[in-house]
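FORM 12-B: Structure-to-Sequence Request
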């Protein structure tokens, strides 16, 4: 088996009681361990917002760190513009991302 490192940031949000789990993949081992529960995260494929999966708290804490960048509202706007045929000016968000990357070099 070969090891691989992720090269992209992963949009996700915390699971909270009442979260609509429709369409969210949960592995059998996570389900058997009591997930979904507080501390778990729901990841979203940025190229397909219908592709969502649960990341158990222990896995999240061991493998992820906060990434500087867009807020949830900005992700919603960007994903909506990309996947819903919106006329929203996505380039304003792209310019903000580029400015942030330049500032953090």
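FORM 12-B RESPONSE
SEQUENCE OUT:
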């Amino acid at each position: 088996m070969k090891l691989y490192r992720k090269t992209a940031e992963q949009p996700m949000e915390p699971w909270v009681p009442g979260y609509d789990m429709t369409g969210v993949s949960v592995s059998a081992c996570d389900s058997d361990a009591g997930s979904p529960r507080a501390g778990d995260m729901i990841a979203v494929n940025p190229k397909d917002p219908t592709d969502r999966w649960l990341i158990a708290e222990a896995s999240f804490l061991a493998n992820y760190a906060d990434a500087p960048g867009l807020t949830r509202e900005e992700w919603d706007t960007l994903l909506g513009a990309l996947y819903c045929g919106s006329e929203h000016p996505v380039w304003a968000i792209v310019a903000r991302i580029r400015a942030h990357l330049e500032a953090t070099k």
